[in-house]
Each structure stands twice: as structure tokens, then as C-alpha cells.
Amino acid sequence: MALIMETRLLLRKVKDLRCFTPRRTRVKEKWAATRPKFPPTKLALQHFDATYSVQLGKLWPSVRVALLSERKYGALLNNFSHDGVLEDLQAQGCRDFISDKAEEAQPCLELSSEVESRRDCMSTNKSADNSQQLSSLQFSPNIKCLVFPRGDITRFKPAKPDTYGLLGYYLMDAASLLPCLALDVQEGHTVLDLCAAPGGKTLALHQMQIVRFLCVNDTSVSRTLRLKRVLHSYTPKELLTVEKLRITSFDGTKWGEIESNTFDRVLVDVPCTTDRHSVMEDDNNIFSKSRIGERRRLPQLQLELLLAGIEAACPGGEILYSTCTLSQSQNLAVVEQAIHLARQNHGIHLQVVGLRHLTQMFRNTFHFAPDLHLGEMVIPHLAANFGPIYMCKLKRLT
Ligand SMILES: C[S@@+](CC[C@H](N)C(=O)[O-])C[C@H]1O[C@@H](n2cnc3c(N)ncnc32)[C@H](O)[C@@H]1O
């Protein structure tokens, strides 16, 4: 007892010693004037708590924890690199989630088409024959993305250049590849990537080596330069010819006026609230006070970009809309409005193409939101901390 009393007294004395530290040598954490009361990351989290707790209900607490934890990456393999990168990554315990999908998909084929046709009945726009898509969906064998198993949070080492200076893999959120796979690019297609920088999805489309002509655009000149650097770090010069690839920095909202009814496939990967970045990084954060206007205008910009992408596709062509936010107003609401306005203002009729087959294929790698009535969404989960990625596919009927 006496010993405990003595220890307590000693601790109190140590605490009191602070009072004798001269004021000038005390360190103040940071002056209040230079630190915002509510940093953008906090504002973002407050906003998400208010909206996503309603939108996602009981899923939100676990998605929130995952959003605030370290994200997981995938290594998009560079087919043009000559070193034994694939074997090396496999030896570390990684697997290519794309070629593994076949075994995952088999037991669920019937269930998947059944669920999808039920969803089609409920949604007037969903008339795509999913069972047919299941058998016809074939990915280019050239696209490989390696991931560590579920629950394994090992980080990838930075990629090294091979003897020709090409990097062996590109690190990206593996869920970001799903929009490229969902686009279902086939041999000889012309493809437009409307908002392409910094270029992860462009690189994936290029790696497929089946596109006849790839048109890559991003309004930001500096980000377009970054994209060019990415392409040059992964591709031999002779494959980056003007006959095969065009890179521009136009305002994508005007694309329909420049080049309409043209492309077999159009990827519209729009700017959004980038939820994961918004809760983790104060720098360049769309929730900062100076960017309130920009953030409020996002759904309108997204709508204009999607409409431009729809116009750029040829009749019969397909358009993939994607974001990296969970927000309904930037996802489903934008797609719904675009379908309506495309018909009303441009006489373009669209069909929503179901993607349930894709979620079934990759259900062992990603967590998908249940019961979205339009499109599919990867939601972050601690055991597989990819996403968020929302995607919705449209087919031009006229
Ligand atoms: C989500 S990022 C695209 C990411 C890219 N697809 C990738 O996989 O690396 C959105 C991009 O849209 C671009 N952007 C914003 N407004 C645009 C516009 N009006 N036209 C074209 N691109 C735009 C931004 O510069 C940004 O690079």
C-alpha cells in the first residue's frame, strides 16, 4: 500500500514539473491560426456519415472503417516487360484475379442469370440477356492483375525497370480494372477513354492488345503529360503510333459535338468526390472550403461527360460510366438523368446492360454492394480493401 502511495506521489511530481519548464522552451503543437478548425478530411467524413449512413444503412460502419484503413493494391502486369515478373509475384503468394475467375464463376452461373432476369423484370431498362453474356464474355488473355489473398495486407514493392527500361507492373486499385473488363472490348474495336489521366485504365485497355484505335483524352494538360509518361514507362515505342493511339486534352463535355456516332466502346470515368482520398488526405481535397463550388457542380459535370460519351459511341456501341465514390447522387442519379436526356434531347435510346455476371465472377476478390437497382459497386471491406468503384454499362440502341 505504501509503495502504491509513493508511486502515485512520484507520478504527480513528474506531472507538476511541467509547470517549472520555462515558457519559451515549451513546444506548442501548432498555432491555432494556421490549423483549420475542420480540416477537409474531417468535413468529408462528416458529410459521408450523414449521407452514407442513410444510403448504406447497417453496411456503413464497416465500410467506414475500411475507408479509413490502408487500401489494397493490385499489380497490373506489363506484358511488354521481359523479366520474370509474373513468376516472381506468384512466388510471393499473389494470384491473377482475372484468370482465376473461371473457377469462381462456375457454381453460380444459373443463380446469377436468374437473379439478373428478376432484376430485369423490376427495372424497365434492364433487358439484356444475361445468360448469353455469361457465355460470351471473354477477356483478353493479355490482361493480368495480381493481388495478395483476402486478409493479406502485404504491400507490393515498387516495380523495377527491365533491361529495356520498361516497368514490370503498374500498381492500382484492382477494382479499377473492373470498368475496363466490363467494357467488353473485342478484337478490332475503336475505343474512347474520355477522362483518362493519370492513365491506369488506359494502360489496362492498351495492355489488352486487341483495340484497333484507342483515343485517350483528359482536360487537364498536366495530368495528360503524366498519362503520357505512364504509357512510355510501360510500352515499347513502336506500339505508341498515331495510327493506333491519339492523346488529347479537350473538354470532354464537348466531345459529342466533335466526334459523334463513332466509337465501339466509350469509357467515361468521371471526376468525383474520390471518397477514399477525401477522408485520408488534406492536400488537394475536394472538401476544402475553396472547392465547395467545384464539389457542388460535380453531378452536373458528370452528367455532361456521360451524355458526351453516349453521343460519341456508335449506334450499337457500349458506354461504361464509372466513379470512385459511393454517392448515389454521383452514380445512379447521373445515369438515370443521362438515359432520360439522351432520349429527350438527342433521340438516343439506351439499354442498361446488367453486370451481375461480372460481380459473380469476381465475388471472391471484391465485396459488392447488394441490391443496387442500377449498376454495380465495389464497397471497401477490411478483408479486401478495394474500391469504392461504381460502374454502370449502357448500350446504344439507336
Ligand atoms: C477519376 S479521374 C480519371 C482516372 C483515370 N480514368 C484512370 O484510370 O487513371 C477523372 C479525370 O477527369 C478529368 N476531367 C475533369 N473534367 C474533365 C472534362 N471536362 N473533360 C475531360 N476530362 C475531365 C480530370 O482531369 C481527371 O483526370
TrEMBL record:
GO MF terms, alphabetically ordered: RNA binding; RNA methyltransferase activity
Keywords in alphabetical order: Methyltransferase, Mitochondrion, RNA-binding, rRNA processing, S-adenosyl-L-methionine, Transferase, Transit peptide
Residues forming the catalytic site: C324
Span of domain SAM-dependent MTase RsmB/NOP-type: 97-397
SUPFAM superfamilies the record matches: S-adenosyl-L-methionine-dependent methyltransferases
UniProt-listed PANTHER family: 5-METHYLCYTOSINE RRNA METHYLTRANSFERASE NSUN4, NCL1 YEAST -RELATED NOL1/NOP2/FMU SUN DOMAIN-CONTAINING
Listed name of the protein: 5-cytosine rRNA methyltransferase NSUN4
Gene field: nsun4
